[in-house]
């Protein structure tokens, strides 16, 4: 497994009873000059709130979510179940990828059924990456 | 590309080249109104930081000074940010609970793999712990272990 050189926490904000596709927020640190090397997802079991105090997705709701990461125009990771990205469920191993240039504007998460949440919540991800300036 | 054919890690971390680990134990207390707490000041290590461990009460109930350690449930309230000497944010707000070691069986099945890092020139006093819940919160007495690897010269 490749060592982690850089990591950033990215939160996808969701509404109560969220369904459908939600794009990832713009992440300036990941816009250019970096390659994504992996990703890890978290639920409320891993962190009780997001850093801005928002509730975190429940274990039950996380089974409704798939993740699509797009490299330029190609969907590099298409509809990956979020539960497979939770390292706690995989002996602590995070999902590693061949490094690729991510296009976050075209990456998203999808709720395949309506969330049971009754208030706004966040879906946190750690994006592992490396810089190309070497 | 290095001589091990790995273009991504320099120097290689696996392959029997590790000679020693240096383990720095840092107790960090967050009081009830603290939203952020810097790590203690340490001289920069010449070696890369390869591991970060959080020791919850399930692993060590009391700190050496007799303070009760924080449970894993409360560790979920915090994230860690790692910054280097040039103030570059290497690790941004990584949740602490997945770094806790070891964790109760309810949270992980059997074998647990620690995250492997390769972070150079870490400046500990620029690194900080942040609380995710608005204050006032619980007092968090965290034990953070930084693990540095020294490499054999090739």
How would you briefly describe this protein structure?
The complex is a heterodimer of chains A (134) and B (154). Chain A is mostly beta strands. Chain A contains 1 helix and 9 strands.
Q: What topology does this entry show?
A:
The complex is a heterodimer of chains A (134) and B (154).
Chain A (H helix, E strand, L loop, with lengths): L5 E9 L5 E4 L10 E8 L13 E2 L2 H4 L2 E7 L2 E8 L13 E6 L7 E4 L9 E11 L3
Chain B lengths: L17 E13 L5 E3 L10 E6 L17 H4 L2 E6 L5 E7 L32 E4 L8 E12 L3
Antiparallel strand pairs in B: 1-7, 2-6, 3-7, 4-5, 4-6
Mean pLDDT of chain B: 80
Largest sheet of chain A: 5 strands, mixed
β-strand amount of chain A:
35-45%
Quaternary structure type: heterodimer
Helical proportion of chain A? Answer: under 10%
Q: Classify the secondary structure makeup of chain A into a structural class.
A: mainly beta
Q: Per DSSP, what share of the residues of chain B sits in E-state strands of 2 or more residues? A: 25-35%
Low-confidence stretches of chain A: none
Radius of gyration of chain A: 14 Å
Task: Give a written overview of the molecule.
The complex is a heterodimer of chains A (134) and B (154). Chain A has 134 residues and is mainly β. Chain A is built from one helix and nine strands. Chain A has one helix spanning 59-62; strands at 6-14, 20-23, 34-41, 55-56, 65-71, 74-81, 95-100, 108-111, 121-131. In chain A, the strands form two sheets. In chain A, strands 1, 3, 4, 7 and 9 form a five-stranded mixed sheet that branches. In chain A, strands 2-8-5-6 form a four-stranded antiparallel sheet, with no helix packed on it. The two termini of chain A are 21 Å apart. The mean pLDDT of chain A is 91. With 154 residues, chain B is mostly beta strands. Chain B is built from one helix and seven strands; from the N terminus they run βββαββββ. Chain B has a four-stranded antiparallel sheet with strand order 2-6-4-5, with no helix packed on it. Chain B has a three-stranded antiparallel sheet with strand order 1-7-3, with no helix packed on it. In chain B, a hairpin with a 5-residue loop joins strand 4 and strand 5 (89-95). Residues 1-17 of chain B have low confidence and may be disordered. The interface between A and B is medium-sized, with 32 and 34 residues. Strand 1 (6-14) of chain A pairs parallel with strand 5 (89-95) of chain B.
